[in-house]
Amino acid sequence: MKRSPLPRLDTADQSIRARLLSCCRLKPGEIWPDPEGKHLVGCGDAADSGFTSQLCTIDGFKPPILAVHDPPYNLVMEKKSSVGAFVDWCRTWIGSSFELMAADASLYIWMGADQNDHFQPLGQFMGMMAETGFDSRSFVTMRNQRGYGTQKNWMAVRQELLSYTKGNPSFKVQYTDIPRLLAGYYKNVAGERKENGERSKSETIRPGNVWVDIQQVFYRMEENVSGCYAQKPLKAIERIIESSSGSGDGVIDFFSHSGTTLLACERLGRRCLTMDLDPIFAEITIRRLENYRKNRKLGWQASNPFQEELGVVDSAVVTVVAADA
Ligand SMILES: C[S@@+](CC[C@H](N)C(=O)[O-])C[C@H]1O[C@@H](n2cnc3c(N)ncnc32)[C@H](O)[C@@H]1O
Questions:
Q1: Is residue 41 part of a domain?
Q2: 201 belongs to a structural domain
Q3: 225 C-alpha to ligand 1 centroid (Å)
Q4: Are 288 and 258 in contact (CB under 8 A)?
Q5: How confident is the model at residue 8 (pLDDT cuts 50, 70, 90)?
Q6: Among residues 244, 246, 67, which one has the least CA distance to residue 171?
Q7: Number of domains in the chain
Q8: Which of 50, 215, 288, 306 is deepest in the core (most CB within 10 A)?
Q9: Which of 231, 307, 285 is nearest to 25 (CA)?
Q10: Ligand 1 mean position to 228 CA, how many Å?
Q11: How many CB atoms lie under 10 A from the CB of residue 246?
Q12: 28-75, pLDDT tens digit by residue?
């Protein structure tokens, strides 16, 4: 496959966007029904409760059991908004998620923190969540290995994962591939002193709340979708889905972008209801599923989802960017 990455699509030249828009199946307000009857992909605004409700109830399936939302951080469609306006905007789709999800459900949200501006909007977002019906459950940090400014400061990019529950959903313990090396952690079991190695059911350790075993997506990885500037690693999303949903359950993601949640649901036998405001990302989401079904590929690495229509993209306008919201 030819090396032909797309530029970052939210800030791309309008002529590239216009070419890509002409290849998109969905217009704002439309929903793509998966021909295999499993998933739905919409093009719409997460803050439009009429549209999110339509997406989640259109074919009368059971209410979703899990939400994995990854909103743009303090950027509401490219217009820098105040942190207050951002949090008000988040309140709308968090409220819809609560209404639409099952009585016992889990909610995960990826949220950034700007180190140059008092770590906003993370704190304000957490404060807003305290006023909702969700209960806080965990605060996970995904380790970043790549990023800017590490000569003068610690890593700039943050990937925080907030976990909440509604009611009393189940949780399945997950394991990493990291071998359990440490001995010497003892506990008394029925009057006998047991070393942790004797008690554990697994040869590898659990992820805990700092996930160090997941590689950020970059252009050399098969799962890379060029043009998508904020793609989450499939491994992270699969871990969430496996821990907090079961076979056939519905999973919502109102910010699909490269379609990682959809792909994870397809691989794990869940039903995904997802959407994006931008028709180009909604199209990429559909194409990622189709590419996986046809070629068993997770992404396009250094090529791109529109290569058949576009041919090799003019490299003069292309820069490969780090995954960063
Ligand atoms: C951080 S990315 C999501 C990344 C995704 N988890 C992945 O792995 O590819 C956020 C996405 O939200 C979309 N978006 C921005 N505003 C939106 C809105 N009001 N409603 C729905 N989607 C929106 C953007 O177009 C962008 O594709």
A1: yes
A2: yes
A3: 14
A4: yes
A5: confident
A6: 244
A7: 2
A8: 288
A9: 285
A10: 10
A11: 14
A12: 999 999 999 999 999 999 999 999 999 999 988 899 999 999 999 865
